[in-house]
Specification:
Length: 113
């Protein structure tokens, strides 16, 4: 399994509006395409105005398929128009699960369904 970590630096003072838009317009459509959310966080200590979210995928082909479907969804495109202006930068990592963690991650994801 793979986990994608996405980190967005937001404009100062825009986090509340970013999260409001995400909850109202983005989350439902994103979860339709990417149901395996590992976490969605904001920093409390360290670099401020940072949003970090993580998504699990069976393999890289699964990731490509799901992300392509999401990008083609008009609801997702409409959401991006609302929230992209708040983003200053983005960093993305795709990490392969350590063998000893795969089953635990699968159990964690199954518990959320």
């Amino acid at each position: 399994m793979y986990v994608e970590e996405r980190m967005y630096v937001l404009q100062v003072g825009k986090a509340a509006e970013y999260f409001k838009n995400y909850e109202q317009f983005g989350m439902k459509v994103q979860l339709k395409h990417l149901p395996d959310m590992v976490g969605y966080y904001t920093t409390e200590i360290g670099q401020l105005n940072l949003v970090v979210h993580m998504w699990a995928y069976e393999d890289l082909n699964d990731r490509d398929r799901r992300r392509a479907a999401m990008q083609a969804d008009p609801e997702w495109q409409a959401y991006l128009v609302k929230n992209r202006p708040f983003m200053v930068s983005q960093e993305t990592r795709v990490m392969k699960c350590a063998p000893c963690f795969v089953e635990r991650l699968k159990k964690m994801l199954a518990a959320t369904k």
